[in-house]
Design brief:
This protein is of the alpha/beta class and 200 residues long. The chain contains 4 helices and 8 strands; from the N terminus they run βαββββαβαβαβ.
């Protein structure tokens, strides 16, 4: 029998209003995401968890500004403001998020030299986080994704999950996007093209 998990992506202070990399409307997702978690059989949270001086931070590239693109050894990389630094208030989950419902918290982006948008792989698309193995051993083959941001970490997670053979649904009503140069529409098209079901 198929089992389903709710994957809550990066509902953290730095991605909510007032945070270092705020996604418009992010904080407003807390209550409806809590409601979705209350109905879910299995809940998994992801948490961006960068060391100080992470290579994806614009501050580590003199003369570069946040949201510029550079080429890294593993491919194109958006340079971000310093955000979700390990142990910082910005890395904490959004106030009011019912983290007690989580069966598992997956931390990602903790390797200094490589970013990690996806819940499944680093941005080299090869180095695994271990989430796939956890889901397989739990007998879970359906995933519903919610959280931040739709066009980056939710998108990458959904595409990887579909590529790995999971049935994937993204609740777009429970996501918000950064929308960097049309990235929202591009992400939706990519997910739909990969067989991800977009609902909400």
């Amino acid at each position: 029998m198929a089992r389903e998990a709710l994957l809550v992506i990066d509902m953290q202070n730095d991605f909510c209003e007032g945070g270092a990399l705020a996604v418009p409307g992010g904080a407003g997702l807390v209550a409806p995401v809590n409601a979705a978690m209350a109905q879910a059989e299995t809940v998994i949270l992801t948490q961006d968890w960068h060391p100080v001086g992470h290579s994806s931070f614009a501050s580590q590239h003199p003369g570069r500004a946040p949201l510029e693109m550079i080429d890294m050894p593993y491919g194109p990389q958006v340079l971000w403001p310093d955000h979700c630094v390990q142990g910082s208030a910005g890395a904490e989950f959004c106030p009011g998020l019912d983290t007690d419902r989580a069966d598992l918290i997956v931390r990602k982006g903790f390797r200094r030299a490589i970013d990690s948008y996806s819940a499944f792989f680093e941005n080299d698309h090869v180095t695994p986080t271990g989430l796939e193995g956890y889901l397989r051993t739990r007998g879970i083959d359906r995933l519903v994704l919610v959280g931040l941001a739709l066009d980056f970490c939710v998108n990458y997670s959904a595409l990887d999950a579909a590529r790995l053979g999971f049935a994937v649904e993204v609740r777009t009503d429970l996501c918000r996007a950064i929308d960097l140069d049309g990235s929202d529409a591009a992400a939706r098209a990519a997910m739909a093209g990969a067989g991800v079901r977009l609902t909400g």
